[in-house]
Amino acid sequence: MENNERKHNISLSNKANQAPSLGEGGGGFIGSKAPSPREGGGGCQEHGGVGLQETGTAGCCNYVCECNRAFNAETLHPLVSLIDMSAPCSCGCIKTDCYSVVLKHRAGDCVKYGRRHYDFADATMLFVTPRKDVDLCTNDGKMLIFHPDLVRCTPLGMKLGDYTFFKYRQDESLHISCCEERVVERCLGSISDELAWGVDEYSKPIICTAIELLLGYCRRFYTRQFITRHDANVDAIAALDKLIDGAFASGEIASSGLPTASRLAPRLDMSACYLDDMLKSETGSTVTEYVRLRRIKLAKRMLMAGDRSVDEISYLLGFSNVKCFAVVFKKVTGVEPCDYR
Which of 115, 266, 290, 296 is the most exposed, having the fewest neighbouring CB atoms within 10 Å of its CB? Predict the structure, then answer.
């Protein structure tokens, strides 16, 4: 009887010393296996697992606390962290499963970050989606990193796709003024204060609200940057017009369909999202809307020239049939194509 009780007590003692599984409500792992992002664990892996690469090459499936470990920083929340990038870092370029917002105070490489003489030069901001490279060895600035699970089923999560600057290229970074930098620092400070408070039932909504405020300001600052880049944007739109007109004139439209942002942007040395946002800032139209309006302008010119039939113009401009062309043309101009001549 005593032997049985002794074995039972040893069993309970061993179980108490084990880290609880996710199903038991704890935040730890069983053994050295880290949960996947779908499991919502967000904790740290052991160094022997898949983690940050110390060779400077990109790794995969890096968690928030692994980035903290690279800077020898404490993890205050498993799904979000604000990291001081001026601290020594043990890693180079990495890939994470998180969104990242990087603030650089000394972004000296103008070509790398796309800064021009008409941009502010007080600080630079980069926005990185999951599975994209993040350069940690900058010895400068701060990085906000948050896992998609943090914002899931929140107002921020439902409109995260609206912040299209996460899909911009690195040389389309945001260059901010000293006043704008203070606003960004204030937003990051509120996130830092909430992380220091500790995790409770209010942490997620408060942190998500603070991140949403930060991203809202960044969208505002990007809109301002489009304004200060107006002259350069006008030149880009002129080049865009030539590409669109050339596609129509060559008959490419009949075989390939209307030009899209993803097809036009590389020829203008831009990302598709940047082109779309720049054009909307300047003209009020997206690339798709702009191409359709441009098509009607070309139709007007062809009709006024009088050397092509309505059927031929309809085909060259990519309309499925003459009736469709007539309906669209009348909707925009108020008259039938045959009457416009």
Answer: 266
What token pair was written down for 215?
A: 């991203």
- Reading the block at residue 17, the tokens are 């010393």
- The rounded distance, in Å, linking the Cα atoms of 315 and 281 is 31
Q: What is the pLDDT of residues 41-50, one digit of tens each?
A: 333 433 333 3
Ramachandran area for residue 266 (φ above 0: left; ψ -120 to 50: alpha; else beta):
alpha
Token couple for 110: 């103008």
Render pLDDT for 235-285 as a digit per residue (tens, 0 to 9).
999 999 999 999 988 878 877 889 999 999 999 999 999 999 999 999 999
Place of tokens 């409109």: 159
Q: Which conformational region is residue 152 in: left (phi greater than 0), alpha (psi within -120 to 50 degrees), or beta?
A: beta
Helix, strand, coil: what percent of the chain each, to 5?
A: 55, 10, 35
> What phi and psi, each to the nearest 5 degrees, are found at residue 31?
65, -140
Would you call 98 exposed, middle or buried from its count of C-beta atoms within 10 A (0-12, 13-18, 19+)? Answer: buried
